[in-house]
Amino acid sequence: MNLASNRHASSSHEIPLPATVVNANAGRMLRDPGLLPGIEQCLDGRAELHLTRDLEELDRVARSLAERQVGHVAICGGDGSAAATLGALWRFYPRGQLPLISLLRGGTMNTVARSLAVARRSPQGLLQDLVQRGKRRSLRLCTVHTLRIGERLGFLFGTGFMVGFLEQYYSAGREKTGPGRALQLMAQVSVDSLRGGDSLREMMRPRDVELTLDGRRWPEQPYLALTAGTVREMGLGFSPFHRMAKASDGFQMLGIDATPRQLVRQLPRIWAGQPMRGGLACDLIGRQATLRSADGPMPYFIDGDLFCDGSTLQIELGPRVRIVLGR
User: Which of 67, 84, 145, 298 would be a feasible disulfide site paired with 293, CB 3.0-4.6 Å?
Assistant: First the structure.
């Protein structure tokens, strides 16, 4: 099933050549020394290329693109790179008027690109399609909402045990991340939870968080995780945001009120894109959420990158973005 078909997918669009923004620190860039030369060869001087090494450089590039009203930006990096680039573009482009975006699958997991059904090709292959098809470029597009958390944009948000999982995932170094590392950790968490082990007890400890969604207060209770998304998948094919398979004017908010063992037993359903059984999760569509932690500063992630800004967070439905899916 083409998941993007329910998100206003369309074709045969005449689109401008992309300005390409490459994250020099992306996992695939670090592992593949031929990636940047391959991108340069694809562009062959026909479109601009920007290599960014930190957020300050990214802001300078975004400001320049916005001042010139560049209409199409291709992003080579992972999910976090794409979220950071979207946030920078949003801060400098007129609000609500983001340029057309191409996700070049330049990261380790590429969860958002996979969830939106971006063509499964190499960054060079995707970029070649954009550059070489001229004015007759016939490419599929979709439109999807972002999430807004403060001045950041993304498609996936989470706190609770998911933060601990990512901390463990990144602990061996970014260059060692990937599906294999994620699956290994997932297996460790599952076995430990089913056996009632202690090795991951702190990661799987429920947190006291007060949540209000669109003015309605959720039950006051410890949550194993609170998570939100505007795309269906969370990673490794798991699809907790099953409602996002259809176009929606909101994001899906999940409050998981399960023990670690109960959650592990629900993983087959989550992977299949089915709701959790047995009242183990609050599951609603909303446009604005407020989270307040009783345990002090609340770590969270946006599209795989970790942050901690304080004990109160505001999540809002962010601007729509048009994304090129490929041929």
Answer: 298
